[in-house]
Amino acid sequence: MMEHVPLDFPFIAAALLMGVSLYIIIFKKNLIKLIMGIAMLAAGVNLFLVALGYRAGGGAPIYTGVPKETMVMPVPQALTLTSIVINVAVLALMLTMVIRIYRHTGSLDSEKSRKLKG
Amino acid sequence: MLTKIVRTVSNGFIPIIVIFGLYIIAHGHLTPGGGFQGGAVVVSGVVMLLVAFNSQELKKSLRERILSIMESSGALIFIGLAFAGIGTVFFYNLLVGSSIFGGIPPTGPNIGDIWTGGVIPLMNFAVGLKVIAGLTAVVLAIALFSGGEEVEE
Amino acid sequence: MDSLIYHSPALIVALPLVVAFAILLISRAGYRVRNIFSLVIFGLIAFLVAVLAVDVHSVGIRVYTFGATAAELALPGGYMVPVRIMFEVDGMSIFMGIIITTVTLAALIYSLHFLKGQTGQARFYSLMMLLYAGMMGLAFTGDMFNLFVFLEIASIAGAGLAAYRTNMADALEGGFKYIVVSAVSALLVLFAIGILYSQYNVLSIAALANYMQYTTLDMIALGLLGGAFVMKLAGVPLHMWAPDTYTVAPAGTTPMILAASYTSMYALYRITFTIYGAHIDSTAIGWIVIVVGVLSMFIGVMMAVHQTDIKRMMAYHAISQGGYMLLGVGVGLAVLANPVALASYGRDAINGGVFHIINHVFYKALLFMTAEAIFFRIGTRDTNKMGGLARNMKWTAVFYIIGALAISGIPPFNGFASKLLIYETVLKFNPVLAVIAMFVSLVTLASFVKVFYSAFTGPEMPAYREVREVPKSMIIGMAILAACVIFFGIFPGLIVDNLVAPATEALINQTPYINAVMGAVP
Q: How many domains does chain A have?
């Protein structure tokens, strides 16, 4: 059944995710929406990396009790894993900063929290 | 704090979750998994406890000092294992062929012997320790913070 | 000694990580132990960097492969492409390494006394060492994915340091802007790495340079990488985060975040010159770099003139001086394909641009440290509120004068040497650009003189009568940088021949870089 789905689907989905998230990052003013936009951009890039490694008809690239002959590429999976770990740290840092900014200024609007002008 | 049923069930579940997480950490060199993935599973168990009990209750058992020491020692064990191979090159896998974790697996599909991999399973444990301590501290700090108090030093 | 040189690329990045994690354990023994521990180990790291610099300039490129049976064995028997993680140190990498190490040494000594009374001091030193390890890894790396990892390490540590003073709201905003811009740019870099990997199946920079054919997807990857790194180095039009972040970083960490921006500039040059150097249409790409540079110079200095906050003004000047570096290297890039022009003024243009990096980091770090010293004593950064400080803070005033004269390009300080190189070569390329550069330099001098009048001279204000000079550790930190500024100004030829020329040679000619990893390709 999987052979009838065109192989470009993951790339289109990744491009859609990245496009929508860039729109959110540039144009939305709420700080929490900005963080959600960055999380979506990370999801899009990770999906793109994992979809790069797929080889048609391949199975998981492990040797322990694996039945299939051809395997997908394991290197993009390692890159994706490192990227997920780094994005966890970045998102935790951003969330902490937003909580403290909310404590100080009482609003989540990025226009109102601009204390420095010029 | 949620009802007594939820609290009792979470208390019963947490050993299962921790053992599952440790299983994923320990078999990282054979099946998908490893340090970060197993650590994240254990921390999801901690989050379950955080939801069932209050964050104030959890702060009494998970003291910040212990978490900080666990985190630093996990990182130092990792770098120490990397330095152990400095006789040849940094990060050299010097335990291959020796008695601890030193088996050499056959090429191709096999059953998977856990006593292989050299330095890698030990590094998995160090990374798992660090991830558990670090993510627990982050989750606890954010939960306490939203409740209105600070975590000092 | 030989084995120290042999392992030094790995030790230079691994020892700061050990310090960063061990300091959290050691600081429970008291702050004196922590200070001595970090200074001793950092002295050892600085010694290793100096030894490695001498070795790279005398012997050649040094390759360090992690986990192999011998460090230079990038291609073990039977392999066609390098598969392990490696560090490759050539002239340009060690040039950035020297800059980063000197600035961190000055910042470490400067911060020893600055943090009295703050909480979380152990974490401050830990973050500083993490930022140093991230920057050195970015300078030494030999493959693309490590570039991404170390870029993120440096960004996270830098954002944590910028938002360190959490009791002030503008510090949090500066740190937040830095981490948002860094996260977006790093994700774009990862996307471009994915595109390059899908084409060539290798991640190592030397192997990519060897196999590069300039297809459309590679052009897209170059555009993404260029855009992401211009975002990180605060080039106009993506510079909006820089004034906020440079203003609020405490103690000596503003120079370190500044050095992180210029290490991203190094990464941009590494990708453009080494991976794509033999294949791109260098005139077009060179002109794009020149346009970004001229915009940065002009807009940076125009926004700086009417600032009242002293550190914010210096941050805008940092953007403007970054434009000088891009202008110099852009002119060299534009004539890269033309051997006559390259020999006559192209190489000197790149020399000027690269020399300006080290000069700018030193005098800008000195200026930022004097501004933080003023803030340490009187608690405000607003120039309208300052006055007559030169009577009480003599050393700070002297260091400010040295920094202000250096940034305006007055002999005999080091700004003059690199700016003269840039003016001469850009004049031969296109006279209009040279005129703009000289105009920007004049406006820079004017704005610094204005701040000197309002802050240091003038009648003494009654509120500041008891202000004393800053503590000795801060003076020593500033003095290290001032000595470098004066030394580089008096002997520029020495520095250009020994430090800058190997870096330029490494950029222009990418064949030794490829051969060090892939073996001599016929």
A: 1
Cross-chain CB nearest to C169 (options A41, A42, A105): A105
C129 within 8 A of C20, measured Cβ to Cβ:
yes
What's the total number of domains in chain C? 1
Task: Please report which residue ranges of chain B form alpha helices under DSSP H.
Answer: 4-26, 35-52, 55-61, 64-84, 120-146
Identify the contact set of chain B against chain C, taking CB-CB distances under 8 A.
Answer: 68-69, 71-73, 75-76, 79, 82-83, 85-86, 88-93, 152-153
d(CA C298, CA C317): 10
Q: Model-level pTM?
A: 0.94
Q: Is A86 on the interface with B (CB under 8 A)?
A: no
Is the CB of C169 less than 8 angstroms away from the CB of A94? Answer: no
Q: Which two tokens stand for residue B71?
A: 């985190």
Containing domain of residue C344, as a range?
Answer: 281-490
Task: Look at A97 and C244 and tell me if their CB atoms are within 8 Å.
Answer: no
Cβ contact (<8 Å) for A93 and C179? yes
Between CA C231 and CA C229 the distance in angstroms is 5
Bridge partner residues of C309 (DSSP): C382
**C381 in a structural domain:** yes
For the record, the structure tokens of B42 come out as: 């254990």
**B63: domain range?**
4-146
Contacts of A42 in chain C (CB under 8 A): 183, 187
CATH label of the domain that carries residue A43: 1.10.287.3510
In order along its 522 residues, chain C shows pLDDT tens digits of 788 888 889 999 999 999 999 988 888 777 788 888 889 999 999 999 999 999 999 888 888 888 878 877 777 777 888 888 889 999 999 999 999 999 999 999 988 877 776 777 788 889 999 999 999 999 999 889 999 999 999 999 999 999 888 888 888 888 999 999 999 999 999 999 999 999 998 899 988 988 988 889 999 999 999 999 999 998 888 888 898 899 888 878 899 999 999 999 999 999 999 988 888 887 888 899 999 999 999 999 888 888 888 888 899 999 999 999 999 999 988 888 888 888 888 888 899 999 999 999 999 999 999 888 888 887 777 877 777 777 778 888 888 888 888 888 888 888 888 888 888 888 888 889 889 988 998 898 888 888 888 777 777 777 776 777 778 888 888 888 899 888 888 888 888 888 888 888 888 888 888 888 887 654
Give a yes or no: residue C49 inside a domain.
Answer: no
Q: For residue A92, what is the enclosing H or E element?
A: helix A75-105
- ipTM associated with this complex: 0.93
Residue C5 Cα, gap to closest chain B Cα (Å): 12
Signed CA dihedral, C94, C97, C101, C103: sign only: positive
If one counts the domains in chain B, the total is 1
